[in-house]
UniProtKB/TrEMBL annotation:
Domain CobW C-terminal residue range list: 213-305
Swiss-Prot/TrEMBL catalytic activity: GTP + H2O = GDP + phosphate + H(+)
Listed name of the protein: GTP-binding protein
UniProt family annotation: Belongs to the SIMIBI class G3E GTPase family. ZNG1 subfamily.
Length: 308
């Protein structure tokens, strides 16, 4: 099974390592492999450290941390050969790196098949002067992002967050913008656990810890019409923060497709063969609380099914 990559970008001092620290310390059963620039900045509680060898810090919660030195693709290949493999790989980029270049490198066919980029997260210091977003590097970091996390709100003045949101909007960045107090980001926006192996039916909403967002699941035992799905997603898109799912189509029965929607962009890619005994369509939708009801979601998604 492919191992999704979360790419964490942001300018120098934005708070990227604080976000990675929080992810590693609060993995919630996920095996996360973090590729970071500087081990010295990783501040995991001492009781979580299980050992260190060969440039890898092992944590007692099943996560590992390795240093981003030399060739990134070689580092990823090493991680993918570990037994057991990680569930997710988090890559923290340098503050002066253009994430667009890194994404292009990760398009290597071998890596893409084994470890696709699932989410690009840009961490942005809320106290950054809005004019700084005109910098070419910061614009690139923002525009490739699916999610923008505003950090250091506790150190900024009261209106900093609002000013920064307005500045991001002025840049026409389609990403979802969230507050990241002390590096905390709603995990539902970063990790999709429900599309791993089999997914049980779940007719009701699940709330992430951050009450701004809620997760709604939709399943079907019928394959979907691809043109009808495109129309349905077009109707839902204005209300969605993210979505991801696995499904078969009427046009290609027996072949599973992987669907992703982030930052206003929808993509489809071939998936693995469907597991026996699971619904033929399983899609997770994330929206702000109260914006999308389960009734509306079910009504719209029902139009993807071909009568009879």
């Amino acid at each position: 099974m492919p191992v999704p990559i979360l790419l964490v970008t942001g300018f120098l001092g934005a708070g990227k390592t604080t976000v990675v620290n929080h992810l590693l310390a609060n993995a919630d059963g996920r095996r996360i492999a973090a590729v970071v620039n500087d081990f010295g900045a990783i501040n995991i509680d001492a009781e979580l450290i299980a050992g260190a060898s060969d440039g890898v810090v092992s944590l007692s919660n099943g996560c590992i941390c390795c240093s981003l030195e030399g060739d990134l693709l070689r580092t990823l290949s090493t991680l993918l050969r570990r037994d057991p493999k990680p569930d997710y790989i988090v890559i923290e980029t340098s503050g002066v790196a253009d994430p667009a270049d890194i994404v292009r490198n990760l398009m290597d066919p071998v890596i893409l098949r084994e470890a696709p980029v699932e989410t690009v997260l840009c961490v942005l210091d809320a106290a950054t002067p809005p004019a700084a977003l005109d910098d070419a590097l910061q614009r690139s970091q923002l525009r490739v992002a699916d999610i923008v996390a505003l950090s250091k709100l506790d150190l900024a003045d009261e209106g900093a967050g609002l000013r920064m949101r307005e500045a991001i909007r002025a840049q026409r960045v389609p990403a979802v913008v969230v507050d990241a107090k002390h590096g905390e980001i709603p995990s539902a926006l970063l990790f999709f656990a429900s599309d791993r192996a089999s997914a049980p039916r779940d007719p009701g909403p699940k709330r992430p810890a951050e009450e701004r967002f809620e997760t709604l699941s939709w399943t079907s035992d019928q394959p979907l019409s691809l043109p009808r799905l495109q129309q349905a997603i077009g109707r839902l898109a204005p209300k969605l923060a993210r979505a991801k799912g696995l499904f078969e189509t009427v046009e290609q029965p027996g072949r599973q497709m992987v669907f992703q929607f982030a930052a206003g962009r929808a993509t489809l890619a071939p998936g693995e063969s469907p597991a026996p005994g699971v619904p033929r369509a399983r899609i997770v939708f994330i929206a702000e609380v109260g914006v999308l009801s389960k009734v509306e979601l079910d009504e719209v998604m029902a139009t993807c099914l071909v009568p009879g």
